[in-house]
Batch of 4 targets.
Target 1
Amino acid sequence: MDGKPRRRTRERILETALRLFNDFGEPNVTTTVIADEMDISPGNLYYHFNNKDEIVNALFADYEREIGTLLGAPEQRPHEVEDIWFFLHLLFETIWKYRFLYRDINDLLTRNRLVETHFRRILAQKHETGTTICRGLAASGLLAATPAQIPVLVTNMTLVATFWLSYEHARNPRGAPDIGHGIYQVMSLAAPYLQGEARRLLEKLSTAYLDTP
């Protein structure tokens, strides 16, 4: 009986912290602010988390689990342009859900060892998944990129997917970006290499985003 309320309080702390970190930036939110927002005592919060880094680490673990499932096993990775578009939607939605990790990443990397080592691992996994997708498209004749061009293409796609949110935040700090624009930016990198029906499908899917600067 006692364990159930404690777990619920822990979940509420994480939910509140995630919302505050996303809205105001992780460096600007203290454990006192989180406790005040929840209308609980700091002691109650410290019962579940000894400090803010433990909260960050717990949120990062949730993020790592979600994005790891998305990047998935090779047989679950998309091999058609329409599937890739949907895959990128899910990827950007996950990034948006945990956007403080991306906006505050430089600060987190300098002081949080878990984020430093695991975020690097996630970047490598993104690159590996992108490489698998591009090689699959090339093998099926849908992508006219050479083996030497694919690593460069994948690096650029990973770069845009990872830091597009920070770019949009710098352009409009008080507005919510359109995730579709980020997806279009990533897919447009592959556009020059796409062939035939894959190229036409991309043009059809991206019609709504052609006015993206």
Target 2
Amino acid sequence: MADSKHENIKNGKVIVIGSGNWGTTLATLFCKNQKIYLWTIDHKEADEINKTRRISQFPDKTLSKNIVVEKKFSREISKDDIVIIVIPSRKIIGLIDELLANKVEECIIVNASKGVKHSTLMTVGQNFISRMPKIKFATLSGPTIANEIIHGIPAKAVLASKNVALLLHLQNILQNDLLKFEFSRDIKGVELAGSLKGLVAIAVGIADGLGFKTNIMGLIMTYGLHEFDTVMKFLGVKSSTVYGIAGMGDLITTCISENSRNRKFGRLLAQGIGMEEALEKVGMEVEGVSMAKTIQKLAKFNLSIPLFSFVTKVIFEDVGNIRNELLDTLNSISG
């Protein structure tokens, strides 16, 4: 991929693939300065949204006329187009297959999805770059709660890319009064951080569901950040990413937000609801569950991550007394 500060990148279309909470929020943010094409799974969904100009996730919001909702691949993707990916990480491989089947080889991909393919430990970026080597790639992550931003509350996120010219181009096209950007060149670290923080938020949700308050939640976030750092270092991520807004910033935001799907999922688990039913009740992708599968694989390397191990146990096993298990885990940790 090119890394020249003087690279000439032309303006193309802006396409958002994924019409869920975050995809719709990003489309709403970015449509202030240009037309946005918001791609859905099928024509029926697109026609319904175009007709009502509303979506179920945000019933009090009307979509701007600058947002054109259509079935994915309704129009051709050119090499200068910005394609923002906002779908569950488990669907990324299928989307790459679709892009290749539609003869898309060169374009700008901005990943706003969170998750890791647990069978290979590959991030979204690694999957895209290995399969589509001609693309210009960036990832967008950080402390960004969709429900806050779409209601006019500002935020700051990280744009990460190896391509400096691309970062400047994306800032010029996408940055606005509600969403500002920091730059990073650590794509892998930013993507891993966005996936891993969900485990800490699930643990906070479990504590919440058990009736614990800020004393225990403070412990969980402290120990959780330490284990977050342990895993990230093992995977070769820089400390600057761990303790930046894509790492610690996103972790804290996800833990304290009542709108966090990971926290809600943990709360449901603490109430004795099984994983599948809890996911159904959340109604959206919970990236912490995908990362928990990755943690199970990393357990073979004897990393000291007792809190993360507790979370994976609660998700995937039948834990008789979750309250005692949590307290025993926290009391076993020192320093």
Target 3
Amino acid sequence: MATLSVRPETWPLAKAFTISRGSRTAAEVVVAEISDGKMTGRGECMPYARYGESVDGVAAAIANQVDAIAAGMDRAALQEALPPGAARNALDCALWDLAAKKAGQPVWQLAGLPEPGPLVTAYTLSLDTPEAMGVDARDNAARPLLKMKLMGEGDLERVAAVRENAPDARIIVDANEGWNVSMVEPFSVELLKFGVEMIEQPLPASDDALLANCNHPIPICADESCHVSGDLEKLVTRYDMINIKLDKTGGLTEALALRAAANAAGLKVMVGCMIATSLAMAPAALVAQGAQVVDLDGPLLLAKDRPDGLAYDGSTLSPSRPALWG
């Protein structure tokens, strides 16, 4: 009989991290562990208030599945038992991890995926003044891809400062729903001059329909607007890309389905993350194979990662080892 345990964990950040909705100094994650008495599978999620989640609420939702796990709940049943979100993500990834350990095979083989290779991730610059973001860019100018957090007012000055201090880096930007529709076209034109390659979630998700009539020379990527494959039908005329995060899809199972659906719909794919440890990044790294943009830098923003965490060489991360996950 399988047993389920759940625990919240706090992982301090290397420095305060700010987006358009606020700042944080620590990553508050929830870890689920499923054991068959001999082996244990683990999964990690990061509850997000934007989606109505809290650490206590997510931990309780996971704990409520104790009896179902003991009765043999599998990944297919889990998709029906819990909605997409952080709680289902932790359980889904724990089930994948346990299955891999019991089979003596890595998750990528169980899922019928190609063997994963190294990935180059974006490195995120926290929202700040143009001057401060310029300094941060200078300190990370050797990284091949920088992701800037934006908010609206002052964004062109922020991007100018980053480009000046990191002249060779590729740049993508993320407004986290902080723009209004009047900004999209003129900002796109100006940001193109700085070599910006992608704009992530410029408008609130409730305003998505307005994007269908916005000219934008830079591809626009849906983040807060896209959670599961069922969302794509309404997004294909509004966005050029989608950002897949396992905490939104509710785990690896739906993330792989969403990637396949996006490819079929002709949408490019970004694979992103919440700020969390390598345990949360490891399954996402399987989804990120072949993605146009990879943003799995969560552990790089922490004061320290798990002892068995992913290996990062600058901005290049290697696939997970069995001691971590999968």
Target 4
Amino acid sequence: MAVMNVESNTRTRILTSARVLFHGRSYTDVGIKEICDNAKVQKGSFYHFFPSKRDLAMAVIDDMADDWAHGFVAEAFDQDLRPIERLDYMIDAAYYWQTAAKDLEGRMPGCLFGNLALEISTRDEVLRAKLNAVFKRTCSRFRETLDQAVSLGEIAPLDSEATAQAMLAFLEGVILLAKTRNDPEVIRILGPAIKTLRIEQMN
């Protein structure tokens, strides 16, 4: 049991180190040695858990996606909230998350998934597919919310799948713009416009 706990702790430290470094800088810019030094582990320990840097990146994506799913995304898409209120909550959550990160680091980190997609999606098909799966899961939460809003009469019928994709693209774009300006207020000001997006159903 003690050995398992040590191994779990070592793996967690490596994951945490990589997550912070990838998010704060970039996947390409960060090397395995720096990850190990930051995690205070030997390279041998790294390769015991992760055969390659790509395998580590995939684990980081899974780890972050799990935090998203059980963290602010779950809170934003709480079924006890009215569907349209969930969109407001999502924007608020993104704003406060990025604001807290800037207060801590002095700069906005942006979205880890968006950052990685921009950096490596044209160079690594495996990681691109992994990131695409994360975006698809998030998109499904928007689609479910829109379908419920339509069924409750909160909004007129629309193409919920296409509109959900537009909402995800809008959210990622707003976060990217805010990161470029290093100003979370961009999210607060522009974010509410997500509720105006709608793509009509094709006849």
